[in-house]
Design brief:
Elements: H1 2-13, H2 28-40, H3 44-54, H4 60-64, H5 74-88, H6 102-106, E1 116-120, H7 126-137, H8 146-158, H9 165-169, H10 179-197, E2 204-208, E3 221-225, E4 228-231, H11 232-239, H12 252-266, H13 271-274, H14 279-294, E5 296-297, E6 300-301, E7 305-306, H15 326-350
Parallel strand pairs: 1-2
Antiparallel strand pairs: 3-4, 3-7, 5-6
Length: 354
């Protein structure tokens, strides 16, 4: 982290700005970094194959290649933007852009996560415990589909006929995308979901006497963070700093480039880590980190308040302070997971050219 801060000082000297932006799923900086780490490890032929696929995306001009900073390498910018396209389609666009149905056709909120249960049953009476188990086992509850959909996307990308990608990536009653377009969309999802699975709170939900239906990956667990009330999920998604980084002239590319160079120099995943190729295994790693590093410190649950989706958040003044050093552990785990996700994604992308 010290080396990164030194680099940031250099950016400030060069006219960099640091403007807070709303955190999105595993935040834009994080997703872009995962994709760039992977892309830069590919050989020329593999990079060319990725570009060939993405150029067929129906939103290539509108989003993937749009708004490129002057300092950005065009091909790297396309890959970075492709990695955040699944978040971009979560909000419908204006009719003037011809995008009024983009949310209905391409948005998949349930694909971004899986809520594997963490049980914290301290103080829960037998009735409450039974309710928790019933909720965990209820097939009608939305617990996330990333572990179902990512394998389908990977199979479609590498299959001879691209599987059933058109029907998988679009819900339109009259599909308007062809096989090449659907493959590009699927690649965007793969770039994104490999990153999501490495974020601890995209793989877990805490069930307790105060959250019998689960806290939705920390979205319903409010803590005191930098003298404000914030949900735990947003902190692990990037509220700890990366979402504030921008390079010279506000360049997002420069910020990601700086972060990727710093992480690639400092963090070297082992061959054993890189040999773990199963999405389910990645989620199990994240689940363990959620339990040991996100929700609990030394076996003790973080101080906070559980709230439902429509309940008001408490004021920061009504919440206890977090344990000393918690922000540092968030940063360290996030750096490790982003780097590992990028290195594992590299192997996924390399398979596209085989």
């Amino acid at each position: 982290m010290r080396n990164l801060l030194v680099g940031l000082v250099g950016l400030v000297t060069a006219g960099a700005v640091f403007n807070p932006r709303p955190a999105q799923a595993w935040h834009e900086i994080g997703h872009m970094s995962v994709a760039l780490i992977a892309y830069r490890q590919l050989d020329d032929g593999q990079q060319k194959k990725v570009q060939e696929i993405l150029k067929e995306h129906p939103h290539f001009d509108l989003f993937l290649s749009a708004d490129a900073p002057a300092d950005a390498r065009p091909d790297e910018w396309v890959v970075m933007r492709a990695a955040i396209w699944p978040d971009w389609v979560r909000s419908p666009r204006s009719a003037g852009q011809g995008m009024t149905k983009i949310k209905e056709e391409f948005n998949r909120p349930s694909w971004h996560f899986v809520n594997k249960p963490i049980r914290h049953l301290v103080g829960a009476d037998p009735t409450t415990r039974a309710t928790i188990e019933e909720n965990i086992g209820n097939p009608k509850k939305d617990r996330g589909e990333v572990l179902k959909k990512l394998p389908d996307l990977l199979a479609g990308l590498n299959g001879p006929n691209n599987g059933d990608l058109p029907s998988l990536v679009s819900t339109s009653l009259k599909p308007t995308i062809n096989a090449s377009e659907s493959r590009a969309i699927a690649l965007c999802w793969v770039l994104h979901l490999v990153g999501d699975l490495h974020q601890p709170l995209h793989a877990a939900a805490l069930f307790s006497k105060d959250s019998v239906d689960g806290d939705r990956g920390g979205n319903g667990f409010i803590i005191r963070w930098q003298n404000r009330a914030a949900d735990l999920h947003s902190i692990w998604d990037g509220g700890f700093g990366w979402d504030e980084l921008k390079g010279s002239d506000g360049s997002q590319y420069a910020a990601v480039d700086l972060l990727v160079r710093d992480l690639s120099k400092r963090i070297k995943p082992t061959q054993q880590d890189l040999g773990v190729t199963s999405p389910d295994a990645w989620s199990e790693e994240s689940l363990k980190l959620a339990q040991t590093m996100a929700y609990f410190v030394n076996g003790k649950l973080l101080p906070g308040v559980f709230v439902g989706p429509l309940e008001h958040r408490p004021h920061a003044a009504d919440l206890d302070k977090l344990p000393d050093g918690y922000g540092t552990r968030v940063q360290e785990v996030a750096e490790q997971r982003v780097t590992l996700a990028g290195c594992r994604l590299k192997n996924v992308l390399a398979d596209l050219s085989k």
